[in-house]
Every structure is written in C-alpha cells, then in structure tokens.
Please model this.
Amino acid sequence: MKLAVFDVDSTLIDAETIEQLAKVVGLEEKVREVTTRAMQGELDFFESLTYRVGLLKGVEVEKVNEICKNLPLMPGAEEAVKALKDKGYKVVCFSGGFKNATVPL
Model:
C-alpha cells in the first residue's frame, strides 16, 4: 500500500483553521499572533493551543462545522490528491486538533 499524509493547515488549505474560526468572534489577529509565536518556539504549543481554543468559547458547533466545510483549498491541492489516488495511494490528512476540519476534507 502507498500512503500520502498531509497536514491540513497551510498545506491542504490556504489558511489556519483556528484563525478562520476566530474571525467569527473578531479575534483573528490575536489568534494569529499567538499561533506565530508558538510556531517560532516562543510559547509552549499545547498551552497556546488551549488558550487559542478558549478564545472561541461560545461559537456554536454548527458554525464551526460550516466554516470547516468551506475552508479555502491551496491551489492544486485537489488535483494533487486526485492524482495520488489515481496512482493507488491512500491519502490521509491530519490537523493539530480540529476533526471538524479533517472530516470534510
């Protein structure tokens, strides 16, 4: 069996899922700043993720699912996945914590 594995955020989609969700509560810039600092190793990633997700408190799960179903794909992502599948690959995507984003993909 051949396997291809992709990260979701900024790989298959042209965005960070948590930042797209933060738009709903008007905190996209704050979440982006914390994300950047965590990616640069300035903050503990798990603690920063917990903090960022906490900022989303009150967002209805239906709204989360709607946003996740409409995340913007990277140019060529759909074609790349199709080409891999056509060649017999099993294609898997993963996320740092958002099953809501991986299931529709």
About this structure: The CA atoms of residues 5 and 92 lie 5 Å apart. The mean pLDDT is 93.
